[in-house]
Specification:
single chain; 297 residues; alpha/beta; eight-stranded mixed β-sheet; globular; binds thiamine diphosphate; binds iron/sulfur cluster; Pyruvate ferredoxin oxidoreductase beta subunit; THDP-binding; PorB-like
């Protein structure tokens, strides 16, 4: 990995995320893989708030804060502007400029979905990275369309009425694949080489690319800060977060755990699942087994 990717840090360490925040790891690895010739559009959310408390910034590439709902629309505009400057003014001659949009799961699967679908369907040459911490963290852990089944959030609170979130997690990679775009992938902060290879490929491909990366959140998931990377790994090993890519319609698993661990080993590490009974865990395990069989994991 050290040989393949530059040592240069384009994402500065002095941000204001919670200790152990996985979103910082997403940004750091993305920029390492994409390199300096990158322009970022960042939807409102934790990543934006923690990296740019005025007048400071953690970004060492051009970066634009955009509204909660329009990261993909702004990235489309940036891509069109770069094309136009190339054609009309001869700027960026012979250069590949990466246009990368970052949105949280709320900003992507919910409020930014329309802008994202439009950008993908129009075929803009951009990479959209959905950093998925599975709730609206910046505003106090409200559920999103990407919150997993049975997770407790402030708007899907586990108690005597409901057992946490009562709907399955929205399957964003497959929805994006249905747009017929050239590249879709899932990733994890705990498998950095796999993620960076995917970012590199997504940048090199001509046309829209979408990567959804699972990002453990100490505050919203309820676990000690030092466990972020371990949790990301447990999610992959338990099969709740499979790593794959879909390149020009071809599906390929990029990491297959040699032996899957039980879902309980993952769930028991987090407060958002502490209400689960043995029956709940069994139900969850059956769902995961079925999904893994479908996905070839
Ligand atoms: C139109 C609009 N509605 C609501 C908000 C308030 N708001 C800011 S960030 C945020 C949650 C962001 O959640 P997500 O996209 O999942 O990112 P995270 O904070 O988890 O990183 C909300 C609701 C807003 N900024 N704009
Ligand atoms: S709430 Fe979660 S996503 Fe937001 S800064 Fe803290 S750890 Fe990161």
């Amino acid at each position: 990995m050290a040989r393949q990717f530059p040592r240069e840090e384009l994402f500065a360490p002095g941000h204001r995320g919670c200790a152990g925040c996985g979103a910082a790891i997403v940004a750091r690895l993305t920029l390492k893989a994409a390199g300096k010739n990158t322009i970022v559009a960042n939807a409102t959310g934790c990543l934006e708030v923690m990296t740019t408390p005025y007048p400071e910034t953690a970004w060492r590439v051009p970066w634009m804060h955009v509204a909660f709902e329009n990261a993909a629309a702004v990235a489309s505009g940036i891509e069109a502007a770069v094309k136009s400057l190339k054609r009309k003014r001869g700027l960026y001659e012979g250069e590949k400029v990466n246009v990368i949009a970052f949105g949280g799961d709320g900003g992507t699967a919910d409020i930014g979905f329309q802008a994202l679908s439009g950008a993908m369907e129009r075929g803009h040459d951009m990479v959209y990275i959905m950093y998925d911490n599975e709730a609206y963290m910046n505003t106090g852990v409200q559920r999103s369309g990407s919150t997993p089944y049975m997770a407790s959030t402030t708007t899907s609170p586990a108690g005597s009425v409901i057992r946490g979130e009562n709907r399955p997690k929205k399957n964003m990679p497959m929805i994006m694949a249905a747009h017929g775009i050239p590249y879709v992938a899932t990733a994890s902060i705990s498998y950095p080489e796999d993620f960076m290879n995917k970012v590199k490929k997504a940048c090199e491909i001509d046309g829209p690319a979408f990567i959804q990366i699972l990002q453990p959140c100490t505050t919203g998931w309820g676990y000690p800060a030092a466990k972020t990377v371990e949790l990301g790994r447990l999610a992959v090993k338990a099969g709740i977060w499979p790593l794959y890519e879909i390149e020009n319609g071809e599906y390929r698993v990029t990491y297959k755990p040699s032996k899957r661990i039980s879902i309980e080993e993952y769930l028991k590490t987090q407060k958002r699942y502490r209400h689960l009974t043995e029956e709940d865990i069994e139900e969850m395990q059956n769902l995961i087994n079925h999904k893994c069989q479908e996905m070839g994991i």
